[in-house]
Design goal:
By secondary structure, the protein is α+β, with helices and mostly antiparallel strands. The protein has 2 helices and 6 strands, in the order H-H-E-E-E-E-E-E. It has one domain. Helix content is 24%, strand content 39%.
Length: 122
């Protein structure tokens, strides 16, 4: 099994991106108008929040070469406080990770290890 820390960063970025208002766009073919309206209402609501948290429980199932299924669980939390604070944490069977952004510096840590990423905003 291969672990990709970049997937965690991408997932956090995608989640954070849903919190910012986007311009109106044409409805794509095959998208239910009611679902589109509800999603836009939800994103507008979240865009107006100054602070919010999201909690998830993620699971990954791996199958060994002997055919045994093993499930790994990783609870995660994301807290955003506008305009410039973002904290995401994931812990569990396979990962112990934290992601911090203070408006200037982005830090991605595996507690107990050196920072995997620590970049100042250009």
């Amino acid at each position: 099994m291969t672990h990709h820390p970049s997937r965690t960063i991408l997932a956090c970025a995608a989640l954070a991106a849903t919190c910012f208002p986007w311009g109106a766009s044409a409805q794509r073919a095959g998208v239910d108008a009611k679902a589109d309206k509800l999603l836009r209402a939800m994103t507008s609501y979240m865009a107006g929040l100054q602070k919010f948290s999201i909690k998830t429980e993620n699971s990954l199932e791996a199958v060994t070469t002997e055919g045994q299924k093993i499930q790994f669980v990783a609870p995660a939390t994301l807290t955003l406080q506008r305009p410039n604070k973002l904290v995401a944490r994931r812990s569990g069977d396979v990962a112990e990770q934290a992601f911090f952004y203070d408006g200037k510096t982005l830090t991605f840590l595996n507690p107990g290890h050196r920072p995997l990423l620590d970049r100042a905003r250009a």
